[in-house]
Amino acid sequence: MKFNKKTVEDIEVKGKKVLVRCDFNVPLKDGEITDTNRLSGAMPTINYLVKKGAKVILCSHLGKPSGEAKPELSLAPVAKKLSEMLGEVVVFAADPNVVSDKVRLAVSEMQNGDIILLENTRYRKEETKNSENFSKELASLADIFVNDAFGTAHRAHCSTVGVTQFLETSVCGYLIQKELKFLGEAVENPVRPFVAILGGAKVTDKIDVIANLLEKVDTLIIGGGMAYTFLKAGGYSIGSSLVEEDKVEYAKDMMQRAQAKGVKFLLPVDHIVADKFSADAEPVVTENQNIPDGYMGLDIGPKTAAMYSAAISIGKTIIWNGPMGVFEFANFAKGTIAVAKAMSDVDGTTVIGGGDSAAAVNQLGFGDKMTHISTGGGASLEFLEGKLLPGIEALTDK
Ligand code: AMP
Hints:
Layout: E1 17-21, E2 28-29, E3 32-33, H1 37-51, E4 55-59, H2 76-86, E5 90-93, H3 101-108, E6 115-118, H4 132-140, E7 144-147, E8 169-172, H5 174-188, E9 194-198, H6 207-214, E10 219-222, H7 227-233, H8 248-261, E11 264-266, E12 271-274, E13 284-285, E14 296-300, H9 302-313, E15 317-321, H10 334-344, E16 349-352, H11 356-363, E17 372-373, H12 377-384, H13 390-393
Parallel strand pairs: 1-4, 1-7, 4-6, 5-6, 7-8, 9-10, 9-15, 10-11, 15-16, 16-17
Antiparallel strand pairs: 2-3, 12-13, 12-14
The structure holds adenosine monophosphate.
């Protein structure tokens, strides 16, 4: 995909009211933000706009309030944290209606370089329906729209897509640019060997990713719960492991396609299994691919971890989405740790799709060793599926 959208650097923002859609969908515990990664991700765009003398109006969703003003999902803690992180006052427009006469008045009184944060856009039921009225209300606050919320770029909502229909200029911010640079270059123009590692619970969630990446990679590595459907398709016994019977044929097709294309398709050659799905289950290493009755595969085995690490180590571009096992249980996290470690030693570009693999990499302490960790789980998956993201498509062409 050629990137041909305007960015914040392509436009004049001084004195302009700029509505910036950020991804402030942060984890909260007892009203406190427990992970500020997404706020840090938004800093470059906000800082740039402030420095250039724009009037910066920030907006985002938080959680799923389903069209109701749920106080526990207010963006108030985000305004406070952002003020601290930016060293600038972020005025919180605490209006459950998100846009109102009161908010319009506050915006009209803004000076260049001022920052206002609107309330959770999903307090409005129209937001996720991409309704015209709320899109127009949002647009009425601003002269220019900036989308910097990669995490919701795969959703056509009022604050990501609808609003662009009522403003002449809509551009992307630095975070979206960075995401597209790393994900885009990895997929479209990889330095080879290009290795993709896919794991996680279900084949269903990754069907289109597998199909799309098979056309591009040199090696495709499969782990996690989805591996057992492939092993079953290969005729191995899988005990009581996770399996999607209705995807066994698909799995066979994919393996045949890989063979026809000369793509190395790696499946586990041993496993760590247990007789129950539990953190305190006794881990047992299997001899080979087969899993005895009464046992379920909860992680790749040591031979597989070594084989996968070796395949990763010769890669020059590596993309990873989905853990190799139930990494949340310490006894079954070894495979995921081995892959994270192998990636962190690679002399090349390493990209982590968002969601669980990003959480795993950060949680296991390998975060700063990767070239790029995507901030968008669903969005990065759709990107890897080869889909166009509506929040990016809606922006103004160069
Ligand atoms: P996903 O959201 O599809 O990336 O899946 C991530 C989830 O898959 C994590 O919560 C893992 O615990 C789970 N998972 C990984 N491997 C297995 C497995 N062998 N059996 C059951 N769940 C697994």
